[in-house]
């Protein structure tokens, strides 16, 4: 049995606990998103970046599947090559989700592009919408996030997840540039799909890097 395989086996419980923590944090963040969706919000805000970019409908329709196709293989590659670091990555990812839940509750911005926003919750109850939003099948097969979450969600989860993965994969030369390319494509997709303002992307970089640094940075000894 190879070294990484032995580490995977030895870390089975931490891996499961990290997954459970990440999932619980995502569920709490999603509850904040549903709560924010039910609040009134102003119209679209001016955005210099969005104003210079075209809206691409096919990118909007495929956005979540594109994120999944770019994110999942790299996350699994990190797990296979460095399971210890992957566990820390998942825990930090959970903390990023919690931070995003707080910012969702604190902000109430209107959709970046009201003309292409989904129908919203309509007559859906909050509990039913939450269940569909925490379900991978609901999000990726039925487009529940695009349908129910019409308001701006500060900060961008697409950006945060792929940026955090890039930070944790950076020291692996085999994954570094793939993770960077995936992150750039995801950032471009959320802007071209008009699902986020540019400030949501910048905010994701700031919050994600701050939490990564708090967890991973250690001062060098003189």
UniProtKB/TrEMBL annotation:
Keywords: Lipid metabolism, Membrane, Transferase, Transmembrane, Transmembrane helix. It is a multi-pass membrane protein. Pfam families: PAP2_C. The chain crosses the membrane at residues 60-79, 86-106, 153-170, 177-195. GO terms for biological process: ceramide biosynthetic process. InterPro entries: Sphingomyelin_synth-like, Sphingomyelin_synth-like_dom. GO terms for molecular function: ceramide cholinephosphotransferase activity; sphingomyelin synthase activity. It is found in: Membrane. It comes from the Bacteria. GO terms for cellular component: plasma membrane. Residues 152-214 form the Sphingomyelin synthase-like domain. This is Sphingomyelin synthase-like domain-containing protein. It comes from Anaeromyxobacter diazotrophicus.
